[in-house]
Amino acid sequence: MSERSLPTIRVDGALSEALCADALAELTGAQLGAxxxxxxxxxxxxxxPVDVRIGDVIELRAGDARHAVARLDVDxxxxxxxxxxxxxxxREGDDAAGxxxxxxxxxxxxxxxxxxxxxxxxxxxALGGAFARGATxxxxxxxxxxxxxxxxxxxxxxxxxxxxxxxxxxxTSIIFGDAAIMKLFRRMEPGINPDVEIGRFLTTRxxxxxxxxxxxxxxxxxxxxxxxxxxxxxxxxxxxxxxxxDALERSRAWFARxxxxxxxxxxxxxxxxxxxxTRDLHDALGSAREDADFVPRPARRGDVERWARSxxxxxxxxxxxxxxxxxxxxxxxxxxxRALLDRHAADLAHLDEIVDSIGEDAGQLIRxxxxxxxxxxxxxxxxxxxxxxxxxxxxxPLSERRERSSALRDVAGMLRxxxxxAATLAAERRGKSDGQRLELRASRWERGAREAFLxxxxxxxxxxxxxxxxQRLDALLELFEMEKVYYEMSYELNNRPEWVWIPxxxxxxxxxxxxxxx
Length: 518
Prior knowledge:
Layout (H helix, E strand, L loop, with lengths): L7 E4 L9 H4 L4 H9 L13 E12 L2 E11 L4 E12 L8 E7 L4 E6 L4 H13 L1 E4 L3 E6 L14 E4 L5 E6 L3 E6 L1 E2 L5 H12 L8 E8 L5 E9 L5 E2 H14 L11 H18 L11 E2 L2 H27 L6 H9 L1 H15 L5 E2 L11 E3 L5 E3 L10 H4 L6 H22 L5 H24 L11 H26 L5 H10 L8
Parallel strand pairs: 1-5
Antiparallel strand pairs: 2-3, 3-4, 4-6, 4-12, 5-6, 7-8, 8-13, 9-10, 10-11, 11-14, 13-14, 15-18, 16-17, 18-19
Helix pairs in contact: 5-11, 6-12, 7-8, 7-9, 7-13, 8-14, 9-13, 11-12, 11-13, 13-14
């Protein structure tokens, strides 16, 4: 139990009556808000909600088990966010209940607790059964659990043992055996969820097998026309690790050995393999010929101009913030900042040059990952790469995350991820190795990973969604990398100023060498 003072719900019958809408209505907005503030998955960033009310309560019955899902309508001051909270009741004194919302007292003196049902094995078992056969819970407001049709070899969950993953923040995951993982979206965003949409397309409409198959979906249909994806079930990759950690682990010894100039790059073959897998992903996403939400569209000069305007906005925001920090003396190394600010006007003019150089040769607009970096890729025990999390950038609305764009936006994201990996590897050795040699080694690592990734990506030859001319491809890639690196700069200045040197170095390098550097 937390130090938060727990409210008490009183019921006339069994403890499970606390799951009814009338009983839950006893909880005040302040009490619900206090509970949310303690949850890692709550997106308030430490700000208390103005008000919280329960919008819908859906009862879930499976055999003798009884649970509920409450929709919490959270007023954050001018906007309302919808969260879902599965609920269960347990007698006081039974096994530890996890995240407790309230105490429950029955008229007969029995006492219990109302808690987050993801910590309840019977709730997880009921979910597994619902995914196995399909189920609809509720009445006016409904939770609809739908299996996704697939080949007979795909795993089923049924009565598989389950456990809750504790590491995540914005969502909660439940693993069923070693075969499947369910992502429960704590914040429900009305509309079509791109993670489910792209997962379904790749699973059912393409031969791309470098992403876990989509096995099932939970749809929420509630009052006030709030319709959203509540959860999704995917294949689980037991024994896998994220590619970020994999890249660091495979490269640490190379950094520690004071590697000679002719020593083989420790991650080049892996980066090239990842480039090929990324190309296969884009080939699959660009293959639609009938699905109106996936069919590629020509990229026109107007699209390039729009991308350049977005990059210009990122440049203006970041350089303004950088100038403020420089004037305040808040930067440990002022020289790179001055160098970048001195060429601010030239960078903006260069964006116009990029637009003119590309003209109409920008390829096609296709669906893409949207938030692509090493942390969005898994390395399996067999050495394969699997791409996950097609939600896009969480800060952007769903409608924007579903928009088509250039596949090179994903490529730019991965190239910037290599820059951060190199910087992290160097930071781990700081104080243990010569500083100048360490800087050169980090630069060599990043350059080698970039070149290998691009070699793998471009080995597939021309695709209609890419510019035909290599120089124009490099120019468009530079535009997206420019947008990304200045976004990173603003983020680091606001959140981790000690890391701002990474995007600073990246921004200074962009104009000194071709974007591809391959």
